[in-house]
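Local shape tokens:
==================
===
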Amino acid sequence: MISWVLRNRAVLTLGALLIAGAVAAQTLADHDTKEGPPLSSHDSRPGGSLALALWLERLGYVVERLESGSSADLAGNSMLFILEPIREFSRLEGEAILSWVRRGGALVYVPGFVATFEQISPELARDVLNDQIGITVPFGPHIQEARATLPFFTAPLASLFLVDTRRSVSLQDEAWVPLIAEEGRVVAATRPLDGGRVYVATSDALLSNHGIGQGDNPAFVLNILARHPDVRTVVFEEAHHAPVEAPGLMGEMRATPWGWAVIYASVLTAVFLFWAGRRFGPPVATVREPARSTGEYVSAFAGLLQRTRATAWTQGQLAQAFRRRLARQLGVRAELSAADMADLLADRYTIDEETFAGSLNALDGAPLDERQLLTHVRGLEEVLRGGRVEPPSRNDGTNPGPQGP
């Protein structure tokens, strides 16, 4: 068992990493799902509106929620809360909501950041309802507190609200009346719409779990309810708090026959491979070839030069190599003539000066054939590599001089 684990440790490590990645991805996905959208009536976090829903129930109102696929209907004595939708309303949905308002309904609306493919200005957060009721929502400097603009807040009295927002309402219709504003920027407003009324606000703090109990913020909802004494049911629109999810590959496979066929075949193949436990074919042994010697590379390069008939190029390279070698040994320039080189070398060593100069001139001269080139190179090498007699004595014969170039 231990030997099997050691042989397959790479596959086992990869499998463990894949499982760990899947667990981490699922954990993050579950964490993101639990957080929920802003101002959701199901959410107990500071940014949710569950406290508002529970408070309205204690006040005696029937609280309902319009979920995705819900068959609930809006009655005439209802008040609808649409709080920061994260998905865009279609044209038909917007017209249906405003038609209900015109028949006597009351709408409390907080525009949200919706997913849309329209090319819009980046400083505006748009929803299809914005165009139909006549508002835009620009961003600007942060507003911490705002004041009531007319004696609307009388039941109970209120004057200063904690809004904590950077958004404001730009009113595009004269029917709108500001309710809360600060330095000319409107945070909340209302307008009649035939037999009904619309309230719009751009501050989450007026309705969120964290901000609804601060300062005069509770008076915002209480004064709206006081203007509609016939309301018995409060409805929270939650359908547009749920994003539309694109179908995933695994979901499609589980919902179709071909998907189940692929899953079944994959499982059977994996079980078969695991149960058989055999490799595909005999083991392949690694053939270790003996290391090549340096002389083999030299022979190969020489053969290449011979096959390409590069005798002239080789002659020029050898002539330069011999001249550089002599220049280093004699301490002179490599451009000296062959006769001068031979004369300087003869002063130090016993050499055939005429033969040496002739061989060096031959390398510098016209192209030679292979046999001639080899003969001259061997002659020069014999002079430079020990193929010479001891140098003659100088002066009084006691100084033997240098022993080699």
Notes: The longest strand covers residues 139-148. The chain has 13 helices and eleven strands. Residues 9-35 form the longest helix (27 residues). The radius of gyration is 48 Å.
